[in-house]
Amino acid sequence: MLKKAFIFIVSCLCTLLIFTNLNNNHVNADTKTYNIGTDVTYPPFEFANKNNQYVGIDIDLMKAIAKEEGFKVNIQPIGFNSAVQSLQSGQIDGVIAGMAITDERKQKFDFSKPYYKTGFIMTVAKNSNITSLKQLRGKRVALKTGTAAANYALSLKDKYGFKTVTFDDSDNMYNDVVNGNSVACFEDMPVMQYAIQTGTKLKIVTKPAQSGYYGFAVMKGKNQELLHKFDDGLAKLKKNGGYDKIVNRYINQNTIAEQKKANENSNNEHTFIGLLKQNSGVFLNGLWKTIYLTILGIIGATIFGIVIGFLGVIPNKFAQGISTTVIYIFRGLPLLVLALFIYNGIPSLTGTKIPAFIAGIITLTLNEGAYTAAFVKGGIEAVDKGQMEAARSLGLSFGKAMKKIILPQGIKIMVPSFVNQFIITLKDTSILSIIGILELTQTGKIIIARNLEGFKVWAIIGLMYLIVITVLTWISNYLQKKMNS
Fold this sequence. Notes:
There is one protein chain. The chain has helices spanning 2-31, 57-69, 80-89, 103-106, 148-160, 170-178, 189-197, 224-240, 242-251, 253-264, 272-311, 317-332, 335-350, 356-382, 385-393, 398-428, 440-451, 454-484; strands at 33-38, 47-48, 54-55, 72-77, 94-95, 109-111, 116-125, 140-144, 163-167, 184-188, 202-204, 209-214, 217-219. It starts with a helix and ends with a helix. The protein folds into three domains: 32-115 and 215-265, Periplasmic binding protein-like II (D-Maltodextrin-Binding Protein, domain 2); 118-212, Periplasmic binding protein-like II (D-Maltodextrin-Binding Protein, domain 2), CATH 3.40.190.10; 272-484, MetI-like (MetI-like fold), CATH 1.10.3720. It is of the alpha/beta class.
C-alpha cells in the first residue's frame, strides 16, 4: 500500500513536469512566445510604476522589438542574478536587464548589438566625506550580485583594501549606503544618475570607468533566431525614431523632473494608510499567492511526509533506510539551495523547463515533507511498543494494529506538529522569491523599489504574516483542546 502511494506521488510529479514542458514547447513553437528575464528594479531600465506595472527602457524596448518583428514576449521580473542563472539552465530564452557586454560574459552568452552606453561609478551618501577610492581602505562597500559593476569593484578590492557585502537588488544596496552600514557602492552610471535625480540620497564621486555597452543576451549557440530578430528590430527602431522615443521617455530631463516632483508631492502616499490604499490590491494578491503556495505545499508535504514517515516504522530494514536517508537529505539542505537546485540545477542537467511556481511547490513538498516525515515517525514511535506487541499477540496484523491501536494515539501527538509545520511552510514561502515567484515578500521588494519606504512596507507585510499566523495558532490550540477533551 505504501509502495503504491509512493509510486503515485512520483508519477504525478513526472506527469506534471512532462505536461508543463510539452505545453511550453507548444506555446513557443506555435505562437513564437519567448520568455525573457529581467531585473526586479533597475530604473530607468526596469521598475514598477505607481500602478505596479513593469516599465522602463528595457521593458519598452523589448516589447517594441517584439511588435516590430512579429513575435510575443513573456517578461519575467525575477532579479538580475536569478535571470542569468535561469538563462543558463534553459528556463528562459533571453535576458534584458541592463546587462553590460563583457569578455567574460561573451564566453557563456551571445549578445545582441549594443543598445545603450554605460560605465561604472562609485557613489557615497550625500553627507559623506569620501571622495576617492583610496579612502575606502578598511571600510565596507555594497555591491549587487552578479553585475559588471560588482566585478569591477572586486578587481579593486585588494588594491584599495576594502571589504564587500552583496545584495540581490539595487534598492537594498542603495539603502545600505544611505543608512551608513556601507560607505559606498558601485553602480552603472545611467542607473545611478537616474536614481539620484529622482531622489535617492547618494552622490557620485568618481568618473565613469571601463565604459561599455548594454546588450540583450541569449545562451551561447542557442536562440539565434531570437537574437537576430532583436538586432533587426533594434535597427528598425533606431531608423524610424522609436528607439529615441523610448529612451527619452525615461531619461529626458523634463521627464525626470516630473518624476522627482511627483515623488515630492506624494507625501500622503508614503504614510501607512497611503501605502495601504495605493497598494492594497498588490498586497492582497501577494498574500493570496503566499497562502495558495502554502496550501499546495502543505498538501504535498503531508502526503510525502506520511509515506516517508510510515516507511520508517514498518518492520523492514530497507524501507527504514529509505526513510532515514530521505529525511536526512531534505532536512539537511537549506530551502534556498533546494529551490535553486530544482529551478535551475535540474533543468540545466535534463533540458526540461520547470515553471517557477511548480519548482516552488516541489521545493516545499520535499523540504517540509522531510520534517513532516520526522514527526510522523516520531509520533508513531512515541506510542508504547508494548501496545503493538500486545496487538500482534492477539492475532492482529501489523496493518490492523497500526490502524486500530497505534495511529489513534499517535495522531494526538502529531496534530500540534502538523499545524506548526503549516505555519513554518507559510513563512518559508518568502524564500521562493529568489526564483521569481511573486508572493508577499517579492511584492514588498517591488513596492519598496518604487517608493523607498522599506520600514513601512516591511512593517505592513510583517503584520499581514502575523495576522495569518495568529489565526493558524488559534486553530492549533482549538484542535489540541478538542483532541484532548
